[in-house]
């Protein structure tokens, strides 16, 4: 099921680009940023922003922000104003509320005694509330509720600017990292440098790519000398669309300096001893685009393994396997492969359905999700269907689909969910429905199959998910301890288990 | 490959709705029309229009038109103005050119001596040019280039209005049908009636549905007494999304009268003796939504059979079968089933890529279609891939995809096209590139595999396509005559064979 | 008082331009048309349209239409598409109602057996209803309610196209003029010619100008050889803003042919014997821009004379004379001059007040027109004010202004209206409130001063208005007969006297 | 001449409103703010903003900002979100440059340890640069270039927040006033209070009004008990349009507290001993709306006196006096009265001329300002014209008007300017062209009449302007010292004399 309907939302995507060589380069940095953000659009559709710097001394910064999708938010004539940028960072933001939302749009730029810095941020500072108080106690007013402004003011604050001839931003970033352990993947732009930062727990993703001539994009012969610039992105899926090759991930706790001279690792801030990394496991399950690579593995492949593992844990006596298009398809194909059942399509999505002007209290309201899907009856009429979904969060969108399939002739509809039930809130940047809204916390969960009208419902186990993410497909006994696994493999499963990577301040 | 890139375009979709019972009914006709058009959006995205009638005597007509997708073209507050409509017709239009395109937007409404009629039309009058002259010779000025205006004026013209007490629209429609044999699926609204008309060759589709209470939509118990109204649509895929059950197709040459009292077949205008019907075979191959039903069969199923037939005709020694998402997927699954090769996904589509502000002459231009697809490398690296496409029209969009797959590690890329090469223009409502642009007519077609960079290329045969559409899967010898088949089964294959259903006037 | 508040509205403005010399000329015809329409914007703000012709054989016509003010309706990039136009006509339209108003937007273009013609029209056909029936009886459907479409179809209709080798548009226009006596100022474009037509009664204005090099615009030395082209416009006020010199008026009943070769009078269709011309006297009183010239006299000067005549007819014992800005100022200055009272400004207009989001039922609603004017208290506190208005139509806008002045310290407020009371509807193109809404037809008119809160109210007499328009300032005895005057001088005063220039068909 | 063409611009207008009585009141505060800003629209058209507070404890602040005119910037549905506001401040801003201008839009709101404050500001801090450095040295990043943000951070900064139980904003405002002497008229909103502040020199205007029932607006009987709330505005012209009575001006250096309980003067911060106040004299000459009241006198009346003084200083042997509409009209009427020459109108303004799509290098470019004005020839042909303008700043807009008048028949055109030549930059909030652009600093000024094509040119003297502002009309000998006058009367004439009210820091 689409997460847009489930109510689960990613906070943001960040993207940066530095042209190699002297100013002005011929590299179309503003356009690369725009296309990079388009490729990260699935991580946030509310607003988009770009800041470019000429990289000169002094630099000129140019900012472009707008509401909505990237292609809506920016106008062609405005992009032209950024064309002198030799480097820049961009941001695409998930929905917020309030009237003047443009104010919360990132990147956030502030002028300091040593010039302007720009910050783009994906994640959520677990101790944001305490940090806001600290900043305000110092006499600073905060004009937005965004963590980016907070981070920017924290960077400007300590140590006091006057004591320094140069700002030493790296020390300031390091200082920030000791004040707040997670979660943030951060791009900080200052003059001609972008600092790419990932929190010590590595909760949010951040990858580096290398721009090469398009003609050499896929050839193995693009050497160092061919480098046209560097990009850094929440997900590697954006690299191909702007002509970059995957280079490496920023490591948990690492500060990487990216400039026209190349990529340089400056420092790796350690976690408290014994703490494992805590990369968000839902990046694999849902958020990331299937062609992105984390920890050396393609997200699609992990989802396919989730499907296979689900087939092992929850086999079904049925005739066909199918998917709720489009995000559950890899898992469905995995389930089909492992189970040996044929994979068929049962639903056809109308991609033009959007906001439609349906007045309340009409018969059309009752149609609900059915407006969005057509039933491919021939493929399942008279058959027992295993329907794979990637997540059931609130339980109110799968129900009409089951009804549709049954009424169109499916004799049985078995729901198999390729992730465990979400039970706990996230404080690291994911927007999850309240505990009360989560189906897994409702009394109805006792008989969820009855509640949603399915013949049967089974979820993937936490252990199974972790195995699939690890690369293994295995059978899990009930006595195995998940905690040792998360320690070993370093993924945050807090929303599934309630075990948070750091102690939460309330 | 998406036809939007191939340059092939459907002309239009039409949709009508009549509420049962007396005026004003509680049925939200304007909203049903809107949702119906949204479900036909794949048939035309340039503009949309709706005309409703109160169905009273005299009736009040209200018109709403706009450029772009249905959800963009209409505003909620404007829809409210149509709320008294007891019946109405709507239209969604494929791209045209020119400055004031809104003028060409349908439905077309004219005031006559006997009151207003509204016309919506899908198709193209083969003898439009002669008919325009006839109308103009009579002293009528035509304000647009649309066939709808032409049809409307023809209906008003003969016999002269003054000679009649009542207009007898049915006789006028019948008269029109003798003047122009094809192609048109037509909705003509007058006062409280919609006439649903399909040309004698049945070139364009038209289906009727019955509105029932949503709660009874899928149950078998919705009897006559439950009828809330009637809808008529280019494709049956729109029925589910507005709460209607499939009723039947309008037959070639038939005039069906739809009113609050029900559906009534008035007449069937015959074809010249010996002429078979000529339903456009490309509705099956490409235009229609997979969940639509024509001639009693689901489009998805026909496409799946095309894939199976293709596997018989053009088997491949390969490791995996895949699709160019999304339209070729049914054929790919059919090919996989028939061939026994595993089906995998190799491309991940970025659904947010749209108009992006790329300036000419930049390195980004070279990326081309690659911006739109991500490679799911794990699924095919080191493997021989059979890639199914539904059509290769101009040959310039499949090429970069093959390049992408090869560079990402595919050892071989065999292209299998689930339809025959297009070689001839269409004069019945499909917008096909010029003969010179069609790859099948270029010298490069001799070595098309080399031209597009594929390991091999094979098209489905015309005989194979016709078999698949018939419902059979068979092996075709070279001596079989396609002509007998099209005669028997009544499909127009003119764009593939050059044999047009009627003699063309030049 | 602004007519926009009084509810009186002009129907339209028309404008045409032909470049001298061969195609393509360097003259920017589309831009001249745009600027010309901007200068006629006071005649209609609802929509605007332009059609240009290349003037070649065959010609290419390009149409541009949009809702709202000219500067809003047209986009710069669209204007570029008209840049090849060697000639063209344009139209600016007063408000209509209904959903798809763009359809009614002029010019109207239709394709005929002999090619396309375009028509722009100011006025209203008195026998439109009968003419519509005639056209429809012939079997023609009319797609709009506009007179322009009607005129266009009438031109195409008779004599039948087939009987002619060439269309002979002049004969057709002449034929039209015999079928409908008034009111129309018409521009008909065909290929490389514009026919400028004024109805036999000359009810609506139409003037011709000559384009000269800007550098010679005001010099007397711009001879024939300097002619760059010709323009034709509802009002001469538009000439200066596009670099044209006033040439002459089109005469009542005249058809003038304007082409690249110059201006040629073709024919003058006579009125029924004894009928005087009937130029709309309200063009002088209100509609026209003060710098326009009709019948050899400047509109400003006529209004000034109206003020002087009003001072003679309705002298006042007061301290200062003032105006309701801005349209009544010439009359106020005339009144001041004639009466010897000092002219002062008492109201300051806030030009930014427009649609403001005031919710119903709030205290702000009660402010009414006061939001629009500030009181210049120093100029009238403690004084007796004569306030000149150009018209009092419904009586509900002058009232709050009087209240404002009194409360701000005026001891007396005498209203003097520089035109007679409107009592009758107009059927020649002016949108006048219903008879019931006109203050002059209400019982309250008996004590209008009491009704609107003024110390006294006096209107200019019909005789006085006619004198002022004639050029004379005189005292009128009660026994003088207005009918003889309108006969002699040829102005339509139907809305004041109920005497219409032609017999009305009901 | 319109200042919009002269290049002189006001920085801003501020407006605040507090409803009397308890929350929620029935007063439509958001709408009053909107209308108040519309009435101040002449002070800034680039962007508009409103912040309302519920006035509860804790309060809820709601912000609304947009680009363009007030009626464009705000949408009706957004205003509804502010409907719970019991008090609020608003701002309308003059043009700035740059891409993301919305960021600079005021009011500026920041969250502090003691809650949110909102600041709206008209003026320019003379020592802004030093103050920015001070703030940044403290470790604060500034996200905009606006003085409002700077003021807001300065208020938050000193004394440090942590040392206080309550913020004591008044002490903080007082502290700010000692740090920066001018220029600012400031509205600071905190919870349920608005602090209205005027700098010690009183450089920018600020007036207080009292909201009363509309029915009692103009009666003298609206007593204390009728008070519905309080408003504070850059100009009193906004009071009438929202139903408020003029109360008094905020005095130079005064902090006035406005709450639901009424208006209270808290403190008056003194100027350095011997320094006179320095109210901007150009508020009288140009910026303010004529119906506003400063220092007890109506702006219109001052302009009228300027015209009379000009007639004394620069009498002309001519036939008629006229104005460049609309802003110079009061001075022209004053000149006419004093000189005894008749006042006539010579130019008619086309109010629809706006941005029009004129391509470069066309003949139409040469038309220049003539597009905007029509010549009322009858009023001046064959006559010697005295044309009053309020200011000639760059000298390039009056020139084509003189040309137009001469070519239309004026025998002489004498330019009389109702203010002295501008020679020096302003550092107190007025946007003046660079010294090099000012005609008074160019060599051409030597023979300005020749340069602009006038028969003669005379400016009002500085002494004469000061006299007119004082209320006197007199003859000035050359030996009189302007410095004593400005001391006595307290107006800033720096742009005319180069004598700034405070020492400038460079």
From TrEMBL, chains A, B, C, D:
- Give the reaction(s) catalysed: 5-phospho-beta-D-ribosylamine + L-glutamate + diphosphate = 5-phospho-alpha-D-ribose 1-diphosphate + L-glutamine + H2O
Identify the pathway: Purine metabolism; IMP biosynthesis via de novo pathway; N(1)-(5-phospho-D-ribosyl)glycinamide from 5-phospho-alpha-D-ribose 1-diphosphate: step 1/2
**Keyword match DNA repair:** no
If you read the UniProt record, what top EC class would you report for this enzyme, in one word? transferase
What is one GO biological process annotated to this record? purine nucleobase biosynthetic process
The record places domain Glutamine amidotransferase type-2 at: 12-261
Q: Provide the cofactor note recorded for this chain's UniProt entry.
A: Binds 1 Mg(2+) ion per subunit. Binds 1 [4Fe-4S] cluster per subunit.
The record's listing under InterPro entries reads:
GATase_2_dom, Ntn_hydrolases_N, PRTase-like, PRTase_dom, PurF, PurF_N
- Give the top-rank taxon of the lineage listed in the UniProt record for this protein: Eukaryota
> What Pfam families does the database record attribute to this sequence?
GATase_6 (PF13522), Pribosyltran (PF00156)
Keywords, ordered alphabetically: 4Fe-4S, Glutamine amidotransferase, Glycosyltransferase, Iron, Iron-sulfur, Magnesium, Metal-binding, Purine biosynthesis, Transferase
Q: What does this protein do?
A: Catalyzes the formation of phosphoribosylamine from phosphoribosylpyrophosphate (PRPP) and glutamine.
Name of this chain's protein? Amidophosphoribosyltransferase
Originating gene: ppat
């Amino acid at each position: 099921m689409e997460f847009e309907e489930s109510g689960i939302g990613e906070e943001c995507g960040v993207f940066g680009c530095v042209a190699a060589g002297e100013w002005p380069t011929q590299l179309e940095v503003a356009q690369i940023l725009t296309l990079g953000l388009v490729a990260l659009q699935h991580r946030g559709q509310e607003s988009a922003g770009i800041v470019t710097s000429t990289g000169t001394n002094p630099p000129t910064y140019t900012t472009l922000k707008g509401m909505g999708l990237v292609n809506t938010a920016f106008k062609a004539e405005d992009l032209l104003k950024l064309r002198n940028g030799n480097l820049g960072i961009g941001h695409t933001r998930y929905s917020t509320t309030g009237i003047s939302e443009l104010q919360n749009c990132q990147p956030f730029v502030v002028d300091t005694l040593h010039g302007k810095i720009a910050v783009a941020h994906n994640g959520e500072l677990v101790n944001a509330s305490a940090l806001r108080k600290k900043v305000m106690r110092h006499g600073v007013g905060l004009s937005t509720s965004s963590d980016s402004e907070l981070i920017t003011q924290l960077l400007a604050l300590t140590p006091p600017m006057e004591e320094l001839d140069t700002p030493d931003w790296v020390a300031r970033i390091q200082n920030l990292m000791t004040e707040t352990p997670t979660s943030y993947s951060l791009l900080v732009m200052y003059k001609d440098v972008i600092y790419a930062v990932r929190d010590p727990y590595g909760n949010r993703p951040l990858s580096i790519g290398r721009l090469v001539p398009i003609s050499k994009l896929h050839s193995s012969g693009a050497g160092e000398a061919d480098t046209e610039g560097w990009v850094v992105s929440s997900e590697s899926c954006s690299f191909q669309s702007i002509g970059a090759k995957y280079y490496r991930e920023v490591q948990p706790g690492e500060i990487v300096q990216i400039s026209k001279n190349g990529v340089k690792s400056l420092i790796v801030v350690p976690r408290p001893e014994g703490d494992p990394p805590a990369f968000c496991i839902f990046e694999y399950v849902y958020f990331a685009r299937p062609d992105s690579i984390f920890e050396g593995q393609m997200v699609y492949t992990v989802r396919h393994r989730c499907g296979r593992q689900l087939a092992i844990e929850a086999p079904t006596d049925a005739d066909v396997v199918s998917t709720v298009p489009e995000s559950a398809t890899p898992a469905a194909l995995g389930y089909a492969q492992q189970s040996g059942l044929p994979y068929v399509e049962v639903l056809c999505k109308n991609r033009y359905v959007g906001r439609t002007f349906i007045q309340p209290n009409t018969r059309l309201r009752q149609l609900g999700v059915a407006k969005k899907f057509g039933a491919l009856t021939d493929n399942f009429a008279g058959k027992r269907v295993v329907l794979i979904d990637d997540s059931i969060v609130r339980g109110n969108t799968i129900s009409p689909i089951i009804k549709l399939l049954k009424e169109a002739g499916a004799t049985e509809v078995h729901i198999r969910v390729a992730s465990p039930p979400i039970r706990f809130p996230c404080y690291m940047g994911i927007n999850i429905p309240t505990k009360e809204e989560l189906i897994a916390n409702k009394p109805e969960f006792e008989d969820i199959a009855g509640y949603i009208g399915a013949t049967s419902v089974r979820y993937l186990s936490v252990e199974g998910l972790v195995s699939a993410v690890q690369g293994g497909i295995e059978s899990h006994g009930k006595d195995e301890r998940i905690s040792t696994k998360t320690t070993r493999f370093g993924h945050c499963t807090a929303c599934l288990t309630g075990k948070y990577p750091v102690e939460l301040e309330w």
